[in-house]
Amino acid sequence: MPELPEVELFKRHFDRTSLGRAIRRVTVKDARIVKPSAARLAAALAGARLGASRRHGKYLLIALGKPGWLVLHFGMNGSLRHFVRDADEPPYDRLRLDFADGHHLAYVNPRRIGRVELVADAAGFIAAEKLGPDALDPRLRPAAFARAVAARRRDVKSVLMDQSVVAGIGNIYSDEILFQARLHPRARADRLDEASLRRLFAKARSVLRTAIRRGAGSEQALERLPRGFLLPQRRKGGRCPRCGGAIATLSYGGRTAYYCPRCQPLAPAPPRARGRARP
Ligand SMILES: [Zn+2]
Q1: If I label 160, which of 26, 179, 221, 258 is the partner at 20 to 30 A Cα–Cα?
Q2: For this structure, is 89 an active site residue?
Q3: How many CB atoms lie within 10 A of CB 187?
Q4: What is the CATH T-level fold of the domain 142-259, as seen in this structure?
Q5: What is the DSSP annotation of 245-257?
Q6: What's the predicted TM-score (pTM) here?
C-alpha cells in the first residue's frame, strides 16, 4: 500500500513530467472513485494548468488555480503514470489527463480503493481529514512528536499508523520503524520512556528517508534497502536481519504486523507514577 515514501515518489514523478502542463481533455474511466462527481471534476480540470504539488502524509495535492486543488489518494496499490504514446497507456487507469502537448498523465488504481477529489483549498482539506503533521515535515520537532505519541493510551504500532497523530505511516513502514527502534508493536505508547520516544522519532525519519532514496514502490526497492532492514523479511519464514531468529506476526484488524520477538521484546514498562500498580 502506498505510504509516505511511495507517494513522495509519485509527487516527484508528477513534478518531473506534468507540472505546468495544460489539460486538453479529461477522461474519467471510473466515476466511483471520483468526488464530487465525474462531470464536475472533468469540467474543472478541462483547460486548467497543473500547478505546484504538495504531499501531506499519503495524499498528493495539486494546485489547479481557480478550480481549487486536485487531491489524489492511492488506496491499496494506486499510482501515477506519465506517458507519451497512446500504446503506453497503463492498465487500470481510472482518470486520464491528455495535455495540450500530446503527453498524458494517468491515475492508476487496480483495486479501486482510494480516490480523486476536487477540493477548494489544500489546508482546509488537511484540516477536514484531521491529518496530523506530515511525518517528514521539518517543522515537526522530536518533542512535539513524543508528546503526541505518548498522549495515546494505545499500542505504539496503532499510534504510528494513526494519521491524526502523524501522517504518512502505514502498516509496512511502521513495522520497519518499530524494528529499527527495537520496540514491540504492542508496547503501550503512553508508557514509553523518553529515550524510546526519541529513538522512535529518529528511526521514523531515517526509515522514511531511506525508503524514498532507495526508490520505494519499485520492483527492485526491497533489494535496494540497506542490510539490516526488516522489510525484505516481512513474509512467511522470514528471519531477523539482526539476530537471525524467526520473524513473528501479530494480527492488526485484518492486517499483519511483522516483528522480531527477540530484538523487540515486550519489556515490562517502568512505573511512571509512584504507587501505581503495574498490570
Ligand atoms: Zn532479532
Answers
A1: 221
A2: no
A3: 21
A4: Helicase, Ruva Protein; domain 3 (1.10.8)
A5: PBPEEEEETTEEE
A6: 0.93
Q: Which amino acid is at 41?
A: L
Asked if residue 273 has pLDDT above 90, the reply is no
Query: Which is the catalytic residue, given 255, 262, 265, 271?
Result: 255
Q: Which of 11, 21, 55, 58 is catalytic?
A: 58
Helix (H) or strand (E) holding 221: helix 221-224
Specify the pLDDT at position 222: 87
Cα 239 to middle of ligand 1, angstroms? 8
Domains 4-128 and 142-259 in one fold:
no
Q: Catalytic annotation on 232?
A: no
Active site residue 255: yes
Mean pLDDT confidence for 122-149: 98
Q: Give tens-digit pLDDT for 218-231.
A: 878 888 999 999 99
How far apart are alpha carbons 130 and 148 in whole angstroms? 14
CA of 243 to the centre of ligand 1 (A): 4
> Residue 264 C-alpha to ligand 1 middle, in angstroms?
7
Give domain limits for the chain.
Answer: 4-128, 142-259
Per-residue pLDDT reduced to its tens digit, 71-121: 999 998 999 999 999 999 999 999 999 999 999 999 999 988 889 999 999
